[in-house]
Specification:
This protein is mostly helical. 39% of the residues lie in helices and 7% in strands. The protein has one domain (2-292, 299-318). It has helices at residues 2-19, 27-36, 41-57, 86-89, 114-118, 129-144, 164-168, 175-191, 196-210, 299-303, 305-318; strands at residues 76-78, 81-83, 90-96, 104-107, 251-252, 255-256, 266-267. The protein has a 3-stranded antiparallel β-sheet. A two-stranded antiparallel sheet has the order 1-2. It is globular and about 50 Å long.
Length: 319
């Protein structure tokens, strides 16, 4: 049974990917069919779980097309600027929006950290903050990538905040940090055989929505109203076309949690540079330093034996 399913699914994936994605088919629907055979809500969630988990912790599925993904939690570098996003996740920085007018420290790795992600889960604790965060990421990216089967128990629709600015504003993220995050998403998609053209489309969309300063209110999830979306808010972020800086609060650099060291330096979103105090020295064991350059999957590997290898790994993982 396993062999028969694998042969049929492999043949389908090779044929579909070789033909290229039709313009009227979403990225989510297309690659769900190509890699998991049936375009169901459960399979769409599986695809987004694979992509998001890999983007967060780096490669954990074998085989893949040979694209190295360090992961969002790994330290990296963008154009000579060091990046370390881990302190935003482990509670080292008072950077969440749960404190009203100031950021507060929250550990979002309270559900087992990387271990359950390697098992293709969000966490080991359904009541953890990690579970809520990862589940929201699966749903948000599913909505962003056009997963048409969302909205039932197999794959609930995103119901979180409609403003990514409000969620991230106390992080005071700069261009290198947001670029690194977006790059890991692109690398993750490439590692599963997503075509270069589709990776570029997703990267362009994410950059235009989040990696610009003072963007006007925008609809991201079709079922939600327009809201402020800029996540990159320091002065080194490119200014959005039709910018509305007056709609954004002053930038307050997050303080280190629990050590008495803080930075109260602030400026308007359109103004001068703020300096992050305390430094972010945390690293994740085994993390690698990587250049934030999206490396597209090799076209020959996608359309040929690479697809067979990817699909074999995915099918073996779930059966």
């Amino acid at each position: 049974m396993f062999t028969k399913s694998l042969v049929v699914a492999t043949a389908l994936a090779s044929t579909v990917l070789a033909q290229g994605r039709p313009e009227n088919t979403s990225i989510c629907d297309y690659y769900t069919t190509a890699l998991l055979k049936e375009n169901t809500a459960a399979n769409q969630k599986t695809l987004l779980t694979l992509v998001v988990n890999t983007a967060v912790i780096g490669n954990y599925t074998q085989p893949n097309v040979g694209i190295a993904v360090p992961g969002i939690l790994a330290a990296g570098e963008v154009d000579g600027t060091e990046v370390n996003l881990l302190p935003y996740f482990n509670g080292e920085l008072a950077s969440t929006n749960r404190g009203g007018m100031a950021g507060v420290s929250v550990n979002f790795l309270d559900g087992g950290g990387a271990a359950p992600l390697k098992e293709n889960k969000a966490s080991n604790d359904p009541n953890s903050r990690q579970e809520r965060l990862l589940t929201h990421l699966y749903e948000y990216f599913g909505g962003l990538l056009g997963c048409s089967m969302m909205g039932n128990n197999d794959y609930p629709a995103y119901s979180g905040s409609n403003s990514q600015y409000s969620v991230h504003k106390f992080m005071a993220l700069n261009n290198a940090e947001v670029t690194y995050f977006i790059t890991q998403v692109g690398l993750s998609a490439a590692s599963f055989g997503v075509a270069e053209s589709d990776i570029t489309a997703v990267g362009t969309a994410l950059g235009g929505l989040f990696n610009v300063r003072c963007a006007p209110e925008t609809v991201v999830i079709p079922s939600q109203p327009a809201a402020l979306q800029s996540v990159c808010i320091t002065e080194d972020c490119a200014l959005s076309p039709n910018s509305t800086c007056a709609a954004y609060d002053a930038v307050v650099v997050p303080q280190m949690a629990g050590n008495g060291t803080s930075s109260m330096t602030s400026t308007m979103a359109g103004g001068a540079t703020s300096t992050r105090a305390g430094g972010m020295s945390s690293t994740m064991t085994g993390s690698a330093t990587a250049s934030a350059t999206i490396v597209p999957a090799n076209a020959a590997a996608i359309n040929g034996a690479g697809v067979d290898a990817i699909l074999a790994g995915i099918v073996a993982f779930f059966l």
